[in-house]
Amino acid sequence: MRRPPLAPTVSIRRTFREFWPYTRGLRHLLVAGGTLAIVAAVCEVAAIGLFGHITDEVLSKQNLGAFWLPAAAWLGLAATAGLVSFVGSYLTALGGERFLLRLRDRVFEHIQTLTPDFFDNRRLGDLMARLTDDIEAIEELIGSGLVKLFTTLVSVVFFAGAAFYIRWDLALLTFLLVPAFLLVAKVFASRFRVVSARERLSNGIMNSVIEEGLSNQSLVQSYNRQGAEAERLHSEGDTWMRANVAQAWLSSLYGPVVQVIETICLITILGFGAWEISSGRLTIGGLLAFAAYLAYLYPAVQSLGQIALTVSEAAAGSDRVIEILTTRPAVTDRDDAVHMGRGRGHIEFRGVGFTYPNRRRPTLRDLSFAVEPGELVVCTGPSGVGKSTIAKLLLRFYDPTAGHVLLDGTDIRELSRESLRDNITILQQENLLFSGTVRENIAYGCPGADPDAVVRAAVMADVHDFVTTLPLGYDTPIGQRGRLMSGGQRQRIAIARAILRDAPVLVLDEPMTGLDAPTAARIMEPLKRLMAGRTTILITHDLRFIPEAAHKIVLEAVPRRSSRIRIKSARGRGSAPRPSRERVPVRDGRTGTVP
Ligand SMILES: Nc1ncnc2c1ncn2[C@@H]1O[C@H](COP(=O)(O)OP(=O)(O)OP(=O)(O)O)[C@@H](O)[C@H]1O
Question: Where do the ABC transporter domain residues begin and end (predicted)?
Fold first, then answer.
């Protein structure tokens, strides 16, 4: 399988510009967290000062009387530092988690504005990884990461300031080695970003393999493909492992490299300090306090470098989230889109042509037909000729590349998608149910529906008697995608949902697919009740149960680059066209028209 490319790299500045607005209303938490962390650092600086004082005034002079006051002050500082760092960490975590929640909501909201084409061209597991792991990585950059960066920087300034205060010349000597830290951090961070991008991609692919493997378990087991699936996961897991090992290699190497630089610094300081003490220019307490400040300072400098690695990792995640956020929906509402109320249900396709994105050959060309309010039209024709595409155009999952689709005489591009879709109910080939209860699934299109209305819809859909036999009746869970139900039961629950929704236009896309003849015949009764009084486009191969009075649209694939449409009476194959419409010659290619 072809591996998808890495998401385009985005600069850190752009990442901040993109995600910083999401911290609005949370910044006070982050600022409070940062401020408290600074207070904790100040307490630590002061505590180290007291340590130096105790060494010089108590230990060197063997004066126990001078011990108690600084010891009590030290204890007080330690308690204050503990308390403020606890509250600070909590507030930072609170701000970070709220940021995460907000960002995930936003990305999910955005994803739901994208047309089905976006999902058809991507793997679900990868999208899930972007909505979970990658978003968490961004939080580590913008939320808690920013606070950590700020507090670490402030700690560096404090400890360095304290070290300068004790001995500026020693401190200066120490600081000569700081550029070495920065250089190492820079080299590691750039390598880390490349490796992290690969790891993120690999994580997405591995999630996809798990998601596909688990959701298709019945297919996997019935085709004895368990070994192949395990192999597929192993192979992706292996790629992911390699990326992780490369990450671990870099971050493990980073520690010792920095440690060596740190040790060089400490030895230099101690040597220089010993010389200063022997010549009487520095006390032991002064040297110990100085060394203690350095012991705090170096880890802070080191964690600045570590933050650079975290930033690289987070940037790889944010590239993938920004890639989604910058994807524009193929179909949008116009600024002046009309919000129509309940329509009459007159449908017209006028000279419609359509080519799927990334396809060169058109699926529909110059297609015209009209359906009167309340009328049933059956759309039939060979597989792959474009029948379901008609439903997608009607719902504005795509816009036609030529011509117009009209609802009650208005081009549907002029309507808001929400109001258009409120007027249309689609019953798809594969019944899409959620893993809630029977009641939740029936009421899916009508949240808050009256329980009696749910039961009435179930009665009309011929599913009520069955539901009453379930252990919890309407509150019985139907399993993942309704898999605890039979195909016919799923279909009837979907019909009840459509009845409850009560839209004037109905699109039935192969409602009999996968059902045997008796089940299909049984479904036909509730379907007729559903269709009564609604404009219905029934897409089907199965003409056995087509109502007598139905008119037919036959999409025909004509040899070489054309297909044509005919409208016939449903009473017999090849019978005369409807009186109000006439067949016209096939025009330029794939489809012909009946205007
Ligand atoms: N998202 C898509 N991207 C690209 N091509 C697509 C997409 N969906 C469908 N097609 C192509 O468009 C053509 C028409 O598909 P459509 O699903 O409308 O056919 P159909 O007549 O409903 O077929 P069937 O009866 O088998 O369901 C097919 O050749 C199909 O491969």
Answer: 347-583
| Ligand 1 in reach of 389 Cβ (< 6 A) | yes
Amino acid (1-letter code) at residue 323: E
Q: Tokens 């896309």: give the residue.
A: 509
Fold of 432-502: Rossmann fold (3.40.50)
Distance of alpha carbon 371 from alpha carbon 68, whole angstroms:
95
Would you state the torsion angle of the CA atoms of residues 298, 304, 305, 307, taken in this order, to the nearest 10 degrees? 140
Is residue 414 within 8 Å of residue 403, measured between CB atoms? Answer: no
Give the distance (Å) from ligand 1 centre to CA of residue 421.
21
CA–CA dist 575, 584 (Å, integer): 16
Give residue-wise pLDDT tens across range 369-402.
888 888 888 888 888 888 889 999 999 989 999 9
| Same-fold call for 338-423+505-595 versus 432-502 | yes
Q: Which residue has a Cα nearest atom 31 of ligand 1?
A: 384
Over the Cα atoms of the chain, what is R_g? 35
Query: What is the number of other CB atoms lying within 10 angstroms of the CB of residue 547?
Result: 14
Assess whether pLDDT exceeds 90 at residue 221.
no
For residue 64, give the DSSP letter.
G
- Element of type H or E holding 33: helix 27-54
In angstroms, what is the span from residue 125 Cα to ligand 1's centroid? 23
Q: Are 366 and 350 in contact (CB under 8 A)?
A: no
Element (H, E) at 348: strand 347-354
Phi and psi (nearest 5°) for 31? -65, -45
What CATH number is given for 12-325 in this structure?
1.20.1560.10
Rounded CA separation 18/323 (Å): 11
Q: Is 506 left (phi over 0), alpha (psi -120 to 50) or beta?
A: beta
Q: Is the minimum distance from the CB of 430 to ligand 1 under 6 angstroms? A: no
- Residues ≥6 apart with Cβ < 8 Å to 564: 555, 556, 558, 586, 591, 592
The half-sphere exposure of 44 on its side-chain side, counting CA atoms within 13 A, is 23
**Is the predicted pLDDT of residue 522 greater than 90, yes or no?**
no
Q: Is the CB of 542 under 6 A from ligand 1?
A: no
**pTM of the complete model:** 0.71
Domain boundaries, the chain: 12-325, 338-423+505-595, 432-502
Nearest-angstrom CA–CA distance, 163 and 313: 33
Q: Which CATH architecture has domain 338-423+505-595?
A: 3-Layer(aba) Sandwich (3.40)
| Residues paired with 568 in a beta bridge | 552
Classify 61 as helix, strand or coil.
coil
